[in-house]
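During the no-cost extension, the postdoctoral fellow (Dr. R.K.) reprocessed legacy sequence entries with the updated structure-token encoder. One reprocessed record is reproduced below for audit purposes.
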Amino acid sequence: MKKVLWLSFLSVLFCAVSVNATLREDVFNVAVDSQGQVISGGGSGGAHWYYYPNTNWWNIWFYDDPLKLDPWYKIIDLSMTISSLDPAAQSRFRYTINWSTPAWSPNSNAPPLPPLSVDEENLWIGRDGSPGFSVTYTFTDKSFDLKLDRYKLPIPYNPEWISIDIRGYNFKITDGFIRHECIPEPATLMFLGLGSLIFFRKNAP
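Re-encoded structure tokens follow.
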């Protein structure tokens, strides 16, 4: 009987992960000229690059999931290849991740697009400013790969929209890929599993 109960517990825990963890995958690419202007590019689902003059970032948005507050959170896997658009000239590249805040979610049929005032942008868009995350790369006639594995966004909720942000000049991104996963804290899964185990124990013959 104990073996059956433990198998039931593990089964419920597995189902909790399967049902509650939402995994989405998107792709993107871009070319940025010597003046820092996007001249081509886009992403899956017809996504476009948008310029935010208040912060000098170019953003491309992807739908995530309906807003889920703590204990839900967001895990990111990100990869891209960066190279010079004109190999004879210097290139500069910087990137980060941003998201729509809970204040934006009533407008969730679209992400918070420009034009926005400074106050609106600060209210509706969160941007990852974690130390060491957003790094500026300066290079000439070079290509390199960037990868971000199992990165947890520094916010206590799962946002409705998520974005890759870029700035700089004379570069292009190819093979851009982002996997974003909405998952609950492990303690929540354990609570669900224990609750189910108690149920099985109470109802076991």
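The helical segments are 2-20, 118-124, 186-203. The chain has one domain: 21-184. The remaining legacy entries will be reprocessed before the final report is submitted.
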